[in-house]
From TrEMBL:
Keywords: Oxidoreductase. It comes from Janibacter alittae. Its EC number is 1.-.-.-. It holds the Pfam family adh_short. GO terms for molecular function: oxidoreductase activity. Belongs to the short-chain dehydrogenases/reductases (SDR) family. It comes from the Bacteria. InterPro entries: NAD(P)-bd_dom_sf, Sc_DH/Rdtase_CS, SDR_fam. It is an enzyme of class 1 (oxidoreductase). This is SDR family oxidoreductase. The keyword Oxidoreductase applies.
Length: 279
């Protein structure tokens, strides 16, 4: 176990909070007594979500900052809004993410977007926050990665690679700073009932998007974001690194580590099944 963090009274930033897992995390944080800055690129949806969240704990406990979670200037605005409204940031949820069904033909622009939002956004936020946390002796960073970052994402090269990067960066943070008062948790779910699963993977992704979505929904239950948020907050309070809302992911990962070649062969069979290539 790493450093733990008490939720009540903490100042928190949640990116990708206009819906899905981010909005559910923000709601649970407010219910637990935190003060929350929510951010998202979709300004209209964010405003509506913030209004709903304000009903949970009062308008004074939630602030919305529309912006790009991967842009240094917008990250700075989120942190500054938290500082001026509530005080220094205690917990940062790097939750914003993008996904599509791009494969080998993905453009450099598609690769850059996936790396910027799914990995470098985490790096840029940590770069800004960790020095202050070290001075204070406490802080907590939560990375929303994916089971794809531990296993792989059939149908999407950009998503699989970038989520592996998110897991790798979270591990590095924990190894480097986890014994200096900084807690790190890495969320790695499979299917969660979010816009990304319903439309994100399939938009512009063609057949790869359909296969990616089918791979996720066919591998296990599609969970409600609220239950995932409960798991994440419990991990923060315990100081647990890996958050696996789908218990099967642990077994899948064990099989991968035990025999990588056999695991790849099994994934190849699953890919053929999903793409209509037979058994």
């Amino acid at each position: 176990m790493g450093a733990q963090m008490e939720i009540a009274g903490s100042t928190v930033v949640v990116t990708g909070a206009a819906g899905g897992i981010g909005a559910a995390i923000a709601r649970r944080l407010l219910e637990a007594g935190a003060r929350v800055v929510v951010s998202d690129l979709d300004q209209e949806r964010l405003a509506a979500t913030a209004e709903q969240l304000a009903e949970v704990a009062g308008a004074a406990e939630v602030v919305s900052v529309a912006g790009d979670a991967s842009a240094d200037a917008d990250i700075e605005r989120m942190i500054a809004a938290a500082q001026s409204s509530f005080g220094p940031v205690d917990i940062f949820f790097a939750n914003a993410g993008v996904g599509d069904g791009s494969g080998l033909q993905a453009s450099d622009e598609q690769w850059q977007l996936a790396l910027d939002v799914n990995v470098l956004a985490h790096v840029r936020a940590a770069r800004r926050l960790v020095p202050g946390w070290l001075e204070r002796g406490s802080g907590y960073f939560v990375s929303t990665a994916s089971a794809a970052g531990l296993l792989t994402q059939i149908g999407s090269a950009t998503y699989s690679v970038s989520k592996h990067g998110a897991v790798g960066f979270a591990e590095w943070l924990a190894v480097t700073y986890g014994d200096q008062g900084i807690g790190v948790s890495c969320l790695c779910p499979m299917g969660v009932d979010t816009d990304m699963l319903r439309t994100g993977m399939t938009s512009g992704g063609g057949e790869g998007g359909r296969v990616a979505a089918a791979a996720v929904t066919g591998a296990g239950d599609v969970l409600d974001p609220a239950s995932v948020a409960d798991d994440v907050l419990a991990a923060v309070q315990k100081g647990s690194f890996l958050v696996l809302p789908h218990a099967d992911v642990h077994e899948f990962l064990r099989r991968k580590v035990d025999d990588h070649d056999r695991w790849i062969a099994g994934m190849q069979r699953y890919n053929r099944h999903l793409t209509g290539g037979g058994q």
